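Bench log. Compound arrived from synthesis this morning; before running ITC I wanted a structural hypothesis for how uridine-diphosphate-N-acetylglucosamine sits in the protein. Inputs:
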Amino acid sequence: MKLLLIVGARPNFIKVAPLVHAIRAHRGTAIEYKLVHTGQHYDEKMSDIFFRELGIPAPDVNLGVGSGSHARQTAAVMTSFEPVVTAEKPDYVVVFGDVNSTVACALVATKLGIKVAHVEAGLRSYDRTMPEEINRVVTDAISDPLLTPSADANENLQKEGIPESRVKLVGNIMIDALVANLPRARDSRILGELGVTQHAYAYVTLHRPSNVDDVGNLARIADELKRLGGTMPVIFPVHPRTRKQLSETEALNGKSGIRFLEPLGYHDSLCLAESARLVITDSGGLQEETTFFRTPCLTLRPNTERPITISVGSNRLTSMEQLREDIERILAKEGRLGDLPPLWDGKTAARILHELILRR
Ligand code: UD1
């Protein structure tokens, strides 16, 4: 069996790692794979560090598409990926998550008659103003099998009329990466380097266009964070999209308790998420990681495609207007929150391989 594994952006690197390790450990059916990096993310801190920390081999192919508008980026991935699939003729193209590289490669492969397996299928925010929601809906419409992380995803796909035979609940591959990297995350020295102690700081990440593309919005959020910074240190590694906007606000000059950092590697980020008093984020991955750690999490979005992190876990949606009250509510109570959803057990990659072999 031959697989082309597609990665493009930071969360994809985390999701591909367990699958690569499962393929290497697999005995029985011979599995050949090639890793294709579209180049959507390309910086040392957005890409290379994840390959090193997660032990992912260097990509066999790098399409080098870089940044651009949605149409340009998606089109660039499509045109440069097409000759790769044609030459490689894999049994499956495996795509992950919901970034532009995911939908671009799914479209190319399907039209060439190659099966596309979608890992993390079926998630829906039901908010089509989010580019990721468009990417999810389109990718799921044309992929087979649809490998889902939680039962709500199966229900979403059923509502869209997708036959059950195309769908398989395999669990959350992010948690495979988390479980495998936990010892190294716990060895991280980031808390000491930042001079913070367990359960006595807030960990913040923001990069969604709806939060950060409008400078006024971002400044208002930064004001709330400064307020929180009066109570406890606020650790805020800044995504490049956010950095562009933040430098135009006063926030960076604030003599507040906010510590703006460069984007962090995987182990430092996991360590900070596990030990935080609370997390404030708009990232999908952090909603899941805080669920695993049972760290109280406020998601600064009107909706989430990961509702299970709310119904089972430690997550809660918030808004700029609601943020202060929600922070106070969390700080008023001690302790960890929530539970672990079924099949978030570190064994998802093995289930995915099993499924691909069965359906080939
Ligand atoms: C992308 C994904 C988003 C995911 C996020 C994780 C889409 C539509 N969005 O958003 O779902 O949550 O990745 O990080 O695919 N940049 C750099 N260095 C890099 C990459 C990007 O400086 O290595 C800057 C560029 O100026 C670029 C901007 O960040 O214009 C945004 O990058 P882009 O890939 O367009 O989207 P993200 O916001 O990163």
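What the model suggests: Residues 2-172+344-359 form a domain with the Rossmann fold fold (CATH 3.40.50.2000). The pocket of uridine-diphosphate-N-acetylglucosamine is lined by residues 9-11, 40-43, 46-47, 67, 98-100, 131-132, 207, 239-241 (CB under 6 Å).
ITC booked for Thursday regardless.
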